[in-house]
Design goal:
- The chain is mainly alpha-helical.
- It has one domain.
- Helix content is 76%, strand content 0%.
- The protein has eight helices and no strands.
- The longest helix is centred in the last third of the chain and has 36 residues.
- It is elongated.
- The two termini are 15 Å apart.
- The mean pLDDT is 81.
Length: 220
Amino acid sequence: MTDQARLTDPHLRTPRAAAFAGILFSVLLFLALGLLRLSVPGDPLEPGTWLESGLSYVTLAMNLVPFAGVAFLWFVGVLRDRLGPREDQFFATVFLGSGLLLLAMLFTAAAVVHAIILAFHAAPESLEHSATFHFARGLAYGMMNTYLVKTASVFMITTSTIALYTRLTPRWLAIGGYVIAIILLMGSYYLDWSLMVFPFWVLLVSLSILWDKEAAPDST
């Protein structure tokens, strides 16, 4: 086996790997967002009473985020690998950049929530109703519900555009990506659960890739 063959092991470059990574990301992010929504009020101006009612769900959600992030990074990487020479430099830059930026904001927002929990355990009496709590709470809320949502929309629009031109996914799924991106852009101001449609879309893309692999296996 040559050095080049070792570096391009087909088992690490198969669309099936991307599909399973995307499915894992979808499930983990669904769980993390769902646990957060069940435990933390949607109002960013709330006084922080959820800190006293038990933090097991929130802590579990924060622990799931790193695993979801790694799965998403692998998903993005293998999608790019599947595009190969068909990848356009302009769209590739926006696609990769928005994916990395989304991941960075997701990690940062999770770190802010984790910092709130640690600060509460250190000084529970002084944290609640304090300016520090409201600053951190507002930072996490704004990052998740404004900037991360908009970045996810850019990622979906770019990915759907690439999919339309390269037939990476079925046409209906690429067009559906535009529709869901518009829902994220417009609905994030009115619907607390709007971000949940993003992992749902990633799940559909992953299942489509997995189905395509089953229907037409690679010649390699």
